[in-house]
Amino acid sequence: MRKKIIAGNWKMNYTVSQGEDFLLSIIDTINTDEVDVVICPNFTMLDRFSDLLEGKKVKLGSQNVYYEPKGAFTGETSPYMLQALNVKYCIVGHSERRTLFGETDEMVNNKAKALLELDMSPIICVGETLEQRNSGEMFDVVEKQVKAALKDIDKEMVKRNVVIAYEPIWAIGTGVTATSDEAEDMCKFIRKTVLNLYDKETAECLRVQYGGSVNPKNAAEILSKEDIDGALVGGASLKNDFVSIVNYE
Ligand code: 13P
Predict the structure, then answer these.
(1) Rounded to the nearest whole angstrom, what is the distance from the C-alpha of residue 15 to the centroid of ligand 1?
(2) CA 196, CA 232: separation in Å to the nearest integer?
(3) 123: Cβ below 6 Å to ligand 1?
(4) In whole angstroms, what is the distance from residue 247 CA to residue 184 CA?
(5) How many CB atoms sit inside 10 A of residue 83's CB?
(6) CB 114 within 8 A of CB 144
């Protein structure tokens, strides 16, 4: 049985003190072992949150990373810097990074590899635009993203640490959620893609999240699906709604 993983992507929201106030208001209400819960705040909060989350059930995640260990890369953050702050998860290839900041499939692959080398979990985001869905290209688009992201990654690493988040771009921040069947179909397809790349065991271990306008009303139905192993939550993770989503059952 795959353990579900529910992650909050705070994106570029909250100052350190605002984030801390919110985190402290919810942290003790999240006390479950049934689900892995991850919060991915802005970089500026990671140091403080690393202390606040010590001994808590919630794990710390980052929203980005650079793949070089150190050096002249102004403005970037290395996997070692994240590891030193007890960061366990890191979102890579979010569609906002791909479209607004030019993150390519190759960069996503390099970031995933760099994280895995240090035993951290990349949450690899994939997903199609509305145009691509309307023209029926969505499975091809997602297959290409998954294959590129996992290029040259060893199956033991995939089994141990890789999470893939299916985030259809048209469902992000729009209030329009994919139907649970649309989400399930794509998450199942992602698992099949991983099966073809590796083997059945690896595909069965892989956790696939859905992301895109997840809220307390739709979470239970989405998370009841066989191939959906969790949620990547944006807007609703900035509010108490996140606790309701974590307690979706
Ligand atoms: P929303 O939940 O705000 O649609 O955002 C989803 C997302 O992009 C999570 O990474």
Answers:
(1) 19
(2) 25
(3) no
(4) 20
(5) 16
(6) no
Q: What is the token pair recorded at 211?
A: 């992301």
Residue-level pLDDT at 249: 84
In the chain, what are the domains? Answer: 4-246 (3.20.20.70)
Which residue's C-alpha comes closest to atom 9 of ligand 1?
A: 234
Tell whether ligand 1 has an atom less than 6 A from the beta carbon of residue 173.
yes
For the Cβ of 213 lying below 6 angstroms from any atom of ligand 1, the answer is: yes
71 band by pLDDT with thresholds 50, 70 and 90: very high
Average of pLDDT values for 114-142? 98
229-249: per-residue pLDDT in tens? 999 999 999 999 999 999 998
| pTM summary value | 0.98
CA distances (Å), 129 to each of 45, 142, 193, 210, in order? Answer: 31, 10, 19, 15
